[in-house]
Amino acid sequence: MATTLRHGGSAALNTSAVRSSQAQHVETRRVCFLGDNTKLKQGSLAKLASVFVPCGDRSATLGALRVRCMVLETKSSVEKKTALHDLYEKEGQSPWYDNLSRPVADLKSLIDSGVRGVTSNPTIFEKAITSSDLYDDQFRQLMNEGNGVEEVFWGLAVTDIQDACDLFLPLYEASKGGDGFVSLEVSPGLADDGHGTVVAADRLYKLVNRPNLYIKIPATAECVPAVRTVISQEISVNVTLIFSLARYEAVINAYLEGLEAVKNEDLSKISSVASFFVSRVDVLVDKRLEKIGSEEALGLRGKAANAQAALAFKLYQDKFSGPRWEALAKRGANKQRLLWASTGVKNPAYPDTLYIAPLVGPDTVNTMPLNALEAFVDHGVVSRTIDANLPEAQKIYDTVEALGIRWADVGSQLEAEGVASFQTSFNNLISSLQAKADKL
């Protein structure tokens, strides 16, 4: 029999929007105790959980002592539920977490709150490693073993990825390989080197040695063919930095061609997501709309990214249907799910769930930074929205182009900026590690 002492909000996501599923034969009684609630002892029932509900009288004062009153709830079982669970269970969208740092075990509370996977990138690792001393012992050990600084970085990163994969492995197994993935990106310095990307993907895949690993490969023109090759080698891939419909279609084709090239008849163990970036699109398009300055242009601010995303979902539906796909599906192939990336709102004037709530749809993933995750759990609405108004999405997309903002140019610029940003983060991290090594 499980017991929860409930008071306040959820520690897992720092928000109050966590509920417990209904259970039969619930018994509640008021419990008053003295002093710090973390020291409460109720015999075998003294386990504090992360979900609490206050009773009518929260506290009272008896002389110099503070008496706190709570409801002690005893159930045969308690299942914590959030809007993240609803996203997956009701609408078929998998919420992932766009961050990774030590202690990796902290991910357990997010998994309990409904998170079903993790993405990482060079910028995330730069922040994690340079802002924490939890990497220092392993750093010294790897340096003392004679490794170069860049190899030390990969040692640190692979350890984090392995630990995260292990935490998500039960979910991966329970979903039969549908979720529970953790992504590790090849060096951003390989963005223009397709062959080098293939070699690096194989190396990282073998180093991590976990079934629920995604190797992240950028969707540059040079690396799209690498996606085909890596998939044909039966390595699961997260294709990242997709900013345009044209490049997205090329990524889908690379995935399909890779599957078709696999010699093994069973394709069920190969998985992929296509990371389609959203908020960065609005940042750039909004600037150009404001430069145009007309009423029509200004009225489109904050709308372009989600419109393009809706059209990407339509393209996904079209490409993963018909005879070509059906032939692969007979071999057990998995669809390459769309993953909405860059979902943190960068303009404070916009709703904080702008790149989550309008992008809810089946067979998709939304990877969110913590602030976006918390916002959606707190006040997000779960309903299928991604294809609710495709004609309007097409109209917005066409109007942006008609105003002189070429989508091809937007995609090219954002891709170049994304690659450069990750390269800068990677270089800064290596420089920081080198400085630390010089002090040893």
Task: Describe it.
There is one protein chain. It is built from 15 helices and 13 strands. With 440 residues, it is α/β, with parallel strands linked by helices. It folds into two domains: 2-80, no CATH class; 83-431, Aldolase class I (TIM Barrel, Alpha-Beta Barrel). The strands form three sheets. Strands 7-13-12-11-10-9-8 form a seven-stranded parallel β-sheet. The chain is globular and about 60 Å long. It holds the Pfam family TAL_FSA.
What is the compact description of this entry?
This is Transaldolase. By secondary structure, the chain is of the alpha/beta class.
- Secondary structure: number of strands: 13
Number of helices: 15
State the CATH superfamily name of the largest domain: Aldolase class I
Measured as a percent range, the helix fraction is: 40-55%
Q: Report the oligomer.
A: single chain
Average pLDDT: 87
CATH C-level class of the largest domain is Alpha Beta
Shape: globular
Based on secondary structure, the structural category is alpha/beta
Features:
440 residues; alpha/beta; TIM Barrel; 2 domains; seven-stranded parallel beta sheet; four-stranded antiparallel beta sheet; disordered N terminus; transaldolase activity; Aldolase_TIM; pentose shunt; schiff base; Transaldolase_2
SSE blueprint and pairings:
Layout: E1 2-6, E2 19-20, E3 27-34, E4 54-62, E5 65-75, E6 80-81, H1 83-91, E7 93-97, H2 107-112, H3 122-130, H4 136-144, H5 149-174, E8 182-185, H6 194-208, E9 213-218, H7 224-232, E10 237-242, H8 245-261, E11 272-277, H9 279-292, H10 295-298, H11 304-319, H12 323-329, E12 337-341, E13 364-368, H13 370-379, H14 390-402, H15 407-438
Parallel strand pairs: 7-13, 8-9, 9-10, 10-11, 11-12, 12-13
Antiparallel strand pairs: 1-5, 2-6, 3-5, 4-5
Helix pairs in contact: 3-15, 4-5, 6-7, 7-8, 8-11, 11-14
